[in-house]
Fold this sequence. Notes:
Blueprint (H helix, E strand, L loop, with lengths): L1 H26 L6 H13 L5 H26 L7 H4 L4 H14 L2 H6 L3 H14 L4 H25 L4 H40 L1
Amino acid sequence: xxxxNALMPxxxxxxxxxxxxxxxxxGFGVPVPEDVTLLTGGVIAGLGHADxxxxxxxxxxxxxxxxxxxxxxxxxxxxxxxxLPGFRKVLTPERYARAQDAFHKYGKWVMFVARFLPxxxxxxxxSAGMSHRVSFATWLLMDGxxxxxxxxxxxxxxxxGAQNWDWMFSMLHRFQHGILALxxxxxxxxxWRWWRKHQQQRTQS
Length: 205
């Protein structure tokens, strides 16, 4: 709620540009909730300060460009980027190790799941780029599919809830819990696939 209140006057004054820049910042791992950013963009559209469909397009562009920048930086600079001051806190050794482990175990679907996990999203995309085993097209497909689910949910929720904030925040929490439940199921499926593949390899050897 505090972040929402802080973003409202900024987005109202600067509109699409402010939403786009904030989403780029989210893509770089800065702890600003992406869902609240998109929700706030939807609210200012619902209040008549922007067009909701344009806001959806801006949201998609900000999300994909922010995520894609991390993928490309990983591809071009590799581990050297971890030495830069601005990335040390975002790409901590612990986060990087977790991302590497998840990426090698579960493959490309981790990039889809990572879109919903802010603490892991940046390291996963960075690791995917650095590995040189994932093409840009594959990354774009995985991240684009996930973004096409998450972005319209938050933008249009903000738009339809602009006149009733109590209802909007109630739905926000419900959607967040629902997405977490779906992620738990998806992660369970990935773990099962990895375990089955591992067992088959042990049997063959």
